[in-house]
Design a protein that fits this description.
With 387 residues, this protein is of the alpha+beta class. The protein is built from 11 helices and 13 strands. Strand 10 and strand 11 form a beta hairpin. Catalyzes the transfer of the gamma-phosphate of ATP to D-galactose to form alpha-D-galactose-1-phosphate (Gal-1-P).
Length: 387
Amino acid sequence: MKIEELKQAFVEAYGVAPDAVYFSPGRVNLIGEHTDYNGGSVFPCALSFGTYLLLRKNGGKTVKFKSLNQPEITELSIDQLTTPLDKVWVNYPLGVFAQFIKRGVEISEGFDILIWGNVPNGAGLSSSAALEVVTAYALNDQLGTGFNRTVLAQIGQKAEHEFAFVNCGIMDQFASANGAKDHAIHLNCDTLEFELVPVKLEGVKILISNTHSPHKLDSGAYNQRVAECKKAVELISKVRPIKNLAELTEDEFKKVESALESDPVAHKRARHVVTEVQRTSDAVKALKAGEIDKFGQMMNASHVSLRDDYEVTGLELDTMAEEAWKIPGVIGSRMTGGGFGGCTVSLVKEEAIDIFIEKVGAAYKAKTGITPDFYVAEIGDGACKIG
């Protein structure tokens, strides 16, 4: 939808024009999966599609939430902003309000809020993080709280922990808040130090393949992986104290992995994290050096590790990646996001994009019975006010 159409939808919902329009993007992670909550590095970029938020101060004592994807308006008094509701989409922006209040911000006046997003739901491209960050960015602007973008990302992460009950890392919210056009973010998730790395892919495009196998982090499998990694840290710490798995190099891990013999699952999870951190570092160096083929090799190895050691892929994601690997002109392909459905991300030579979509799409549908979608990704900026 165009901005003017969104403004008209706001008028239809609330009877008056909005005061402001905000936007925050979804993200795709090029490499570095399930490393963020393990203190490792990641390499995401913000996308050109995301979530829009329109609002006005209403002069009252209630906050009204309306999504163009939902028929009803949810209305809460300003003293009801710190309690989660019963598993509804409103918990994402509501959780952000709660985090501002926890930080001592007084919300004395209500808002009318309208949400619309064009991040495909369930695709694993961070529609939830985009919603959290756009809410945080808008409140920061409206209330004059002066939080920087990193704090806004942390507010979004806490909202997801406490109101959506997903123990996510910081990557998704950080990319949505701090993204920059034509750059990926090399982020150390332990220290939150980051570098914006130019993505120069001459003759190569980033192609996102949506399996349409719903990606549901709140299913419990994601939180289970978090717990398994914590168990690995506990076992390793008996022989070498560590805070996070990502502290270990591959050589260091080999020296202590005997501590995980009693728990083969924790062993596999830890092995993925340690090797994925190294792959991410190698991939970023390759991109900076213009070694795109090496970057692609790291992507492929990442998917294999996520399939075999972390076990978060499944039939749909594996089929999509494995069919992509067969196409001449595909430099690399892997699942992206939390897994359990969602999308793959591929680096594809421009002349191979049409044949990729045709052949991979047909093979995927033949094997799964599902018709996929494909998007050529444009790397965009982070959260902003647009009107």
